[in-house]
Amino acid sequence: MTTPRGPVRGEPAARGPVAATGAGLAAALGVVGRARRAKALHPAGAVLAGTLERHGRARSGIAWLDARGEDGVVVRLSRGGGLPPALPDVLGLAIRWVGDDDALPVDLLLSTTGSAPVLRHVLRPWRAGGSGPFTTLVPFRAPRGPVLLAAVPEPPRALPAAPEALAVVLARSPMTLNLAYAAPLGPWRSFGRLVVRGAVGPGVDLPVRFDPLRTPPGLDTYPWVAALREPAYREARRAWPGRRSGG
């Protein structure tokens, strides 16, 4: 397994409107974080154990995705806006595993969106986790062109919003998500499944920080995506004094 990479080296980072948008998002998140005195996005969640299985029948042209394999993973399920449980919120699914070379961990971040073309690039709030699909929202650069990844609960189920209750429920009855890939306008094609179980340790929300630029092997971040995401994620992950939070 190759070491995960961020933006393709040798290419200039995107500038102009995209970089300005990223800086604007970071500034807005900074205001929210200071008011909340915690992370602006995904302030609380459940850090869980899981298994990522690839069935080996995919034909994406991405060596890691097409190969048969199994990885133990750490998963964080969270509510993006930190809204009260009674309100719909964009849900987050973050997955981490370690490559064969035991180098940097690999991080895969997904959010609830639609699944159809165009709608897979649009965030969709849900009241309960496990009800709808998660996607990467924006594409990765792959050998055959842009690719998005998705994780779809199968079967769909309504999960508790509170992290502690969520961890208890999944320890008793793990959640299975079908894993798929697609071109921005193409059909979803299966490459495996993710099984999510109970809490990793005695604490439900451990201080794990995920990095969207630590991409899976064979997938790279487009410079324009990095320019948009990097400042916003850096600000969003900032833990303001007064509250401990992971993610």
Main attributes of the structure:
single chain; 247 residues; alpha+beta; Catalase HpII,  Chain A, domain 1; eight-stranded antiparallel beta barrel; 4 helices; 9 strands; globular; disordered C terminus
Number of domains: 1
Sheet/helix structural class: alpha+beta
Order of helices and strands: HEHEEEEEEHEEH
Strand order of the largest sheet: 1-2-3-4-5-7-8-9
CATH architecture: Beta Barrel
Number of helices: 4
Low-confidence stretches: 6-11, 25-33, 239-246
Radius of gyration: 17 Å
Distance between the termini: 25 Å
| Number of beta-strand segments | 9
How many strands, which pairing sense, and closed or not: the largest β-sheet?
A: 8 strands, antiparallel, barrel
Mean pLDDT: 83
CATH topology: Catalase HpII,  Chain A, domain 1
Tell me roughly what share of residues is in helical segments. Answer: 10-25%
Shape type: globular
Going by CATH, the homologous superfamily would be Catalase core domain
Share in β-strands: 25-35%
- CATH top level is Mainly Beta
